[in-house]
Amino acid sequence: MAKHPTPLLDQLESGPWPSFVSDLKHAAEVRHKNPKGIELQIPEDVIDDLLGLLEMSYTDGTTHWKHGGIVGVFGYGGGVIGRYCDQPERFPGVAHFHTVRVAQPSGLFYKADYMEELCDLWDFRGSGLTNMHGSTGDIIWLGTTTPQLEEIFYELTHKHNQDLGGSGSNLRTPACCIGMSRCEFACIDAQHMCHTLTNEYQDMLHRPQFPYKFKFKFDGCPNGCVASIARSDFSVIGTWKDDIKIDQAAVKAYVGGEIPSNGGAHAGRDWGKFDIQKEVIDLCPTKCMSYEGGKLSIDTKNCYRCMHCINVMPKALRVGDERGASILVGAKAPILDGAQMSSLLVPFIPAEDPYDEIKEVIENIWDWWMEEGKNRERLGETLKRLGFQKVLEVTGIPPMAQHVKEPRTNPYIFWKEDEVPGGWSRDINEYRKLHQR
Question: Which alpha helices (H) appear in 207-334, and where do they start and end?
């Protein structure tokens, strides 16, 4: 019998979709049976109390979790996410319910025995509830008590050769897509880059020294499967400089219906005959494509590399051969100054091991942001406050047309004195010879 009645939560089990409430109830039942005979280190009824607290929140229309914050772990400055409920006497199992981030393997590839080891550890020292994966990419362990944190950290690092994920005002765990290991569109080895820079900047993850959190994300191509452009302070997105490769015979096969569009993803119903004009040409954001006389043409200099045409006709169109990456900066969630998408900083940069050009951009930005950023101010907010021109100056990147989001509504350009021949001082008489009244 349930420890706490949950009539409101029970309604969430009645729909056609899988319910997290059912999962929680099942996990609570398994925990009580304890089939592996584990000597549980936190209360056996932790999940029962979690359900009771959630029911209370639904009844009252307000949360019963108190402030978050960081719980310290010796030897790891980032700490662990603190969770405390405001009804500890009524629900003692969740008086402490800390969230632990565990650094994910690059590209989210696991071995079964590795996953089993982590789950056994969490069943022993936590609630057994996991979240695969958080927005940073980490494995998320939901619910443990303060005395268990040191033990968890020690076992992770000494027995499982694993690290905690980032928390606090530091480098958060870098994340990437599956890249070249599985994806035919990948322009860079996103997994290798993510792994390399994670190791390179491990101290920035362990020792908070930034104004606020900083996230790397690596997308292998402009499809953006980890949404780096929306979710990271520093986005690296694979791209190419030369022409999209076109197989004209395959284009005709798509038009003739011999090859299903979108890789057959829309095969569940009859969408009618494939219309290249409607489904590809007219949807090109820069109108750089045309299909005439049975031949597809692309004006490369006006191509945004949005990937739409390639996604629709993957057997006919392929990414180019001159590959590298674009770097964008400043994306964030709505905390201080609203949600922001990242802005293009480097249109094209080589992306070859050891990634020295990319590291130089990163470190120049960090040096400036740590000096100029306010407390709890993400990089994107600092850019918005001080201007994008500042980050161009500190990185030594010259302004270029790709940096312009939209044309300005006035004609003025502001120059620095050292950029003007002769500076600000001038002979007015010589000036008037060329600029008569």
Answer: 228-231, 248-255, 276-279, 308-312
Query: Cα separation of 285 and 52, whole Å?
Result: 51
Spatial separation of the C-alpha atoms in residues 437 and 425, rounded to whole Å: 20
Cβ atoms of residues 221 and 319 within 8 Å: yes
DSSP annotation of 143: -
The answer to whether 46 and 53 have CB atoms below 8 angstroms apart is: no
Helix ranges, 161-238 (H): 190-200, 202-206, 228-231
- φ and ψ at residue 70, rounded to 5 degrees: -120, 135
Cβ atoms of 143 and 46 closer than 8 Å: yes
250 three-class SS: helix
- Residues of the chain with pLDDT below 70 are 409-413
- Contact between 215 and 278 (Cβ < 8 Å): no
* Cβ neighbours, 10 Å, residue 204: 20
Q: Is the dihedral of CA 77, 80, 86, 92 positive or negative?
A: negative
Query: CB–CB of 228/218 below 8 Å?
Result: yes
Q: Amino acid identity, residue 375?
A: N
CA dist 204 → 152, 156, 165, 215, 400 (Å):
21, 19, 12, 11, 31
Joined tokens for residue 434: 């060329």
Which residues make Cβ contacts (< 8 Å) with residue 289, sequence separation at least 6?
Answer: 280, 281, 296, 297, 298, 299, 309
Q: How does pLDDT run across 255-273, given as a tens digit for each residue?
A: 999 999 998 888 878 888 9
Q: Give how far Cα 155 sits from Cα of 158, 161, 321, Å.
A: 5, 9, 45
Which of 250, 223, 248, 255 has the alpha carbon at shortest distance from 238? 223
What is the rounded CA–CA span in Å between residue 230 and residue 56?
Answer: 34
Please give the structure tokens belonging to residue 188.
Answer: 């860079």
- Prediction pTM value: 0.89
**113-133 pLDDT tens trace:** 999 999 999 999 999 999 988
Q: Which structure tokens are listed for 226?
A: 């980890």
